[in-house]
Each structure stands twice: as C-alpha cells, then as structure tokens.
Amino acid sequence: MSVSETAGVATAVATASLEARIAAADWPQLARDLDAQGHAQIERLLTPAECRALAGLYTDDAAFRSRVVMARHGFGRGEYRYFAHPLPALVATLRGGFYPHLVPIANRWHAAMGLATRFPPRHAEFIARCHAAGQTRPTPLLLQYGEGDYNCLHQDLYGEHVFPLQVVLLLSEPGRDFEGGEFVMTEQRPRMQSRPMVLPLRQGDAAVIAVHERPVQGTRGSYRVWLRHGVSRVRAGRRHTAGVIFHDAA
Ligand SMILES: O=C(O)CCC(=O)C(=O)O
Ligand SMILES: [Fe+2]
C-alpha cells in the first residue's frame, strides 16, 4: 500500500472505532438523564490522543471557515473557529455517529412540546433540509480559552432549522491543563427562578445537552423550559473543546 492508502485505512479504522464507542454508550440511561436534567455525559468517549489531535487542529487555518474572537461580540473572552467542509474525519464521525441515537429523543421531545417538526433517521437527510432552507455553513467548532477567558451563557441557534440536542467534548484535562473553566448550564422554568447546573467534565468526556428548550413532565402535563450553556472563567492554563451542533448555519 502507498503511504496515503495506509493513512486512509488508519482513518477508516479509527472512524469505525469511534462510531462503535458512540453506539456502545448506555443510550437508555443517557435518554433518562436528558429527560430528567437536560444534559447527559459519556465519560472518556475520546482517547487522549484523539483529544490532542482535535485540539491540535486549532492552528490549521485550512480546516476552518471562520474565526470568532468572543470579546468583539460581547460573547465572553477567548476564541473559536468553525470547521469548513469537508469536516475532519473525527468531527464528521462524531456528527454522523451521534445523530441517529439522538433522533428518538429529539422526536419525543418535539411531540411532548407540541411541535410539528420530526427529524429524519440519518444526518444527511436532516442536513439536506437545512441546506434547502439556506442553512449551508457547517457549525461544528473548536474553542480555545486561555487564562481569564470565559464563555457567556448562550444558545447555539443558527436559523429556522434547529436540532434540539448538541454534543460538547472537553479536549483538555482539568487540574492538569487548566483550572476553573467549568461547563455550566442554566434552566429557566416558567414563572420560577433559574436552575444552575455544573457538568463535571474531564478530558475526552462528551456532554450531550439540550440546545435551547426541552419538555419537563409536571403533575399536570408537560411544560417547556429554556436552557443556556457557557463556561466559567479559566483561572489558569489552556482549555480546548469541540462542539458538535447538528443543524447548519444560515
Ligand atoms: O467550551 C465549552 O465548553 C462550551 C462549548 C460550546 O459553547 C459549544 O460547543 O456550543
Ligand atoms: Fe455553545
């Protein structure tokens, strides 16, 4: 085999392995956690080598379509870059691999919230829907924080088409690579005070979170809550994350 053929086989093996790890997660439990809390966690989904490889892409200009300096927009402090097409194999595998497991949850949430939209079983079909509506720019991103950086509470909405779940992967190790920089969420309930949540992520962990709203089962039927996520101030070191959002951007 040529060098590029060998590299191609290595990529295919790595891709199949990550897809199998995603499939092997305890999806019934993840669905219960998502229903109860609006977030769920898969510990150590990515290997340290995959985390390093992904974080290392940050300086590879050709991999990205744009760069956002958060302070310029009032989004916080730090920066992120949106991947360009074609997505790196690892990112494409995460997006295509997670999606089918999230569809039943997304469809159930939509039914409970009285929303008409249902999501097709494969990501390519959902992306075709986004593209037909003018949402053609890829949204997976890589974020980089240094000392003093933080990410204000936000929702990743990029147009009319919204897939209601997203995945965040922590690529750095807390305590070793950085201090502070906790992943936080808030849940705003109707006519009540907001509920704060801190997700205790470690390197390689995947957090599956609600993008903006989810149903909560109350005593008299279900009601809708409004979620946001962000990152507390990084006190020292450097923190990288990868974000996988399933809808594309207008
Ligand atoms: O850096 C983080 O943990 C936040 C990432 C984020 O906001 C996202 O992936 O949408
Ligand atoms: Fe986000």
From TrEMBL:
InterPro entries: DUF2086, Oxoglu/Fe-dep_dioxygenase_dom. It comes from Methylibium petroleiphilum (strain ATCC BAA-1232 / LMG 22953 / PM1). Keywords: Iron, Metal-binding, Oxidoreductase. Residues 136-249 form the Fe2OG dioxygenase domain. It holds the Pfam family Oxygenase-NA. The keyword Membrane does not apply. Belongs to the iron/ascorbate-dependent oxidoreductase family. This is Fe2OG dioxygenase domain-containing protein. Gene3D superfamilies: q2cbj1_9rhob like domain. GO terms for molecular function: metal ion binding; oxidoreductase activity. It comes from the Bacteria.
